Amino acid sequence: MSKPVIKTKNLTKYFKTPRGLLHAVESVNLTIEEGKTIGVVGESGCGKTTLGRVITRLEEATSGEVYLEGKEILGLKGSAKRNIYHDIQMIFQDPYSSLNPRLSLGDIIADPIETMGERMSKKDLHELVLSLMDTVGLPPRYYNQYPHELDGGRRQRVGLARALALDPKFIVCDEPVSALDVSIQAQILNLLMDLQEEKKLAYMFITHNLFVVKHISHNIMVMYMGQVVELAEKNELFAHPSHPYTKALLAAIPQPDLSSRGKNRELLAGEVSSPIEPKPGCRFSPRCPYASEKCRAGEIPLKEIAPNHYCVCTLFSN
Amino acid sequence: MKELLNIKNLYVQYNTDEAVVHAVNGVDLIVHRGEAMGLVGETGAGKTTTALGILNILPEQVGEITEGDIVYDGKNVLNMSKKELQAMRGKQVSMIFQDPMTSLNPIITVGNQIDEMLLLHFKELTKEQRAQKVDDILKLVGIPAERKHEYPFQFSGGMKQRIGIAIALVCQPDLLIADEPTTALDVTIQAQILQLMKQLKRELGTALIMITHDLGIVAELCDNVSVMYAGEIVETGTVEDIYQRIENHPYTTGLFNCIPKLDSNEKRLTPIAGYMVDPTDLPKGCKFHDRCPYVTDRCGRENPKAYQNGTHKIKCFRYESWGEGDSI
Questions:
Q1: Which tens digits make up the pLDDT trace of A306-317?
Q2: Is the minimum CB–CB distance between B280 and chain A shorter than 8 Å?
Q3: Are residues A138 and A259 both part of a single domain?
Q4: Where is the ABC transporter domain (chain B) (predicted)?
Q5: Cβ <8 Å between A267 and B191
Q6: What's the CA angle centered on A178, arms A174 and A183, to 5 degrees?
Q7: Is there a single domain that holds both residue A268 and residue A234?
């Protein structure tokens, strides 16, 4: 087992709303090792983005702990808090709104170095930015261009270069390819994986696309309405999905071949209910075909059902 | 099957202040009654523009059909009067849009939005008969009829898309154009909507043009497929022709290869080299040639014709031995 870079303990985030507390992330425990990717999947509103934002402290957690290489970071204040961004960075879903439209690409990429990095001469900074651009496959002629002059794929490369500027150990990738066409998506995924191999980066890859998550992750965590329902090594998860929600999610993907044509698949009825002041127990139970009284009784323990395969479901708790 | 829609050699351009955008460049497309046609391609391929052309609802003054014919049920849409067009839209051909959040009117109850269609196209119906039709169509798309008095914001995304489908289908059109109807939805909700569309197609016999970038959706729902690139259809055929993946246009092959597979552990994906061509400055010859792994000198000079093998047509010189077919 390699070195854990990020570890969370009972990480929880509630939002106050006029109608009560919105349970966005409920007691998440996860470990991400050096050079590894954890994929976080789930549908909109499952809390996957909030989880990423809480770990990077863009959002303050309600309770719980986050350890960066063994050091707790949620309690840090002032410059110590700021310094975590030497090691933790994030790339965002929308390459249109996550870049400052009034800065040139060179300035966007130089920004983190100027604010937080080593002091260096203008010339060295220029060199460093150009080498970062080269790393992500942007030709030097883009240095003085502005975000609006670029298409989505190239913009996402700028976001990645900016995230790499301080040489971080861990990057939260929040749906970085969802806004891109498949041909461009493949380029960015390849780039992310090459960089990981080269720099031993740890990724948390947030997505709703199961093809993508299978491709890029080592481990996959499935979330539903703020709760982790299943966590496993990726091949294990796709070979033996165990939680009824995971099964439904996998069954719902339309495959780009003729294997499932004409067959009627098992459909998940209903929709996600409200995460505001949710009832105790499993939040998937109102849609679950196997739900029983036990599911609504109280907290269901995480159970290791196979080596390195965890599931939170009453079907496995006995 | 009888021919319902026949698009011949369609050219559409957008005249903007900066440049002329060549969105559709010589498209031929035939859709038969009851047929489900998948129109596949990436952003900017001209899928939506083609669809807007069918209903003659291209943005005024900017969008211009420079050449070609769109014949719907024997009549040329481009020569229709305003009145004829109004009678066609929604009654014979209707459309559902990508974003169910913005395509419904926020200040009219969903029941009244469905009723509006009936009011326009079935003037002879009484109020009670219309109310009955609204209830029926809501039930058909899986929404309890008593919710017709509610407003769009009271529904979730999946439910709103069901309402969009109800509005499109209440007049029982012969052709439904669905423009990325599930792109904004979660996968489990998408599965429900696809199931619903399959069921409606079976029950009502509506012909369907399914515009999507998702090859999985086409495999599940469609009978035939047309793949678009830079405003041209580069390949068309039955789903079997395309998805057997024995003979394909290099662009189609590229699209398939970009999708990570669920059943293998390949390390790297094979993206299509380069970027989408600029529609304001299209290359000569085959529009795909500078991204194509099989490019020859000829590809840069001459735009390939459609070569045909049975139901399968491909616009690429590699299939020249098939012999020239009808244009696509």
A1: 999 999 999 987
A2: no
A3: no
A4: 5-255
A5: yes
A6: 130
A7: yes
